[in-house]
Design goal:
Strand content: under 5%
Order of helices and strands: HHHHHHHH
Shape: elongated
Largest sheet: none
Radius of gyration: 35 Å
Distance between the termini: 108 Å
Number of helices: 8
Number of strands: 0
């Protein structure tokens, strides 16, 4: 019968993937310094923690855990700086993509300035063409921001009457602005 000590050691799947378990004391000695360095670069607490963790992963992947403390600290700071810069580049690309998408969306949906100005001018002309209660109701609702109940009190109408008046007035204004209605309301 063969003893366990005499049998050749086979690497388990975990040992093949993680050849060396990080030294907890080593991580504890350097973690605060790497974290503070990431914060000094401008990272918020959550990002600084991620950067510090990534710096340690890089160090272990490259077998740097056996360096003297000062050299390891320098390597960790450089790795943290590299991770920070990578993050900044990704953010800039993301922001540039968002800005480009917003610009494209605006160009596809927005009227040009001349058409917009013409529509505002037409709206003002049409509002001036309104008579009496219709003009007062529009001004009280959209210029002054009053509720239907407040408008009803000011004009001596029931709240449902104000709702009907505003609905009829909006429909008339739309036709007036589009140039299909030449009557006064």
């Amino acid at each position: 019968m063969q003893s366990v000590a005499a049998a050749p050691h086979r690497l388990t799947a975990v040992e093949e993937v993680v050849p060396q378990v990080p030294d907890v004391a080593l991580v504890q000695r350097h973690l605060a310094g790497v974290f503070r360095f990431a914060r000094a670069l401008g990272a918020d607490s959550e990002l600084a923690a991620d950067i510090a963790q990534e710096a340690f992963v890089i160090a272990w992947q490259r077998g740097k855990q056996n360096l003297p403390d000062r050299a390891l600290a320098r390597f960790l700071r450089r790795s943290a700086r590299f991770v920070w810069l990578q993050n900044c580049r990704q953010d800039r690309r993301r922001e540039a993509a968002i800005a480009k998408a917003a610009e494209i969306a605006f160009e596809q949906t927005a009227d040009d300035d001349a058409a917009h100005d013409a529509r505002i001018t037409a709206t003002r002309r049409c509002i001036e063409r309104l008579n009496g209660r219709a003009q007062q109701a529009v001004q009280l609702r959209y210029r002054d921001g009053h509720s239907r109940d407040q408008i009803a009190d000011a004009l001596g109408l029931a709240p449902n009457g104000v709702k009907t008046l505003l609905s009829r007035t909006r429909r008339w204004l739309q036709q007036c602005i589009e140039g299909t209605n030449h009557e006064t309301l």
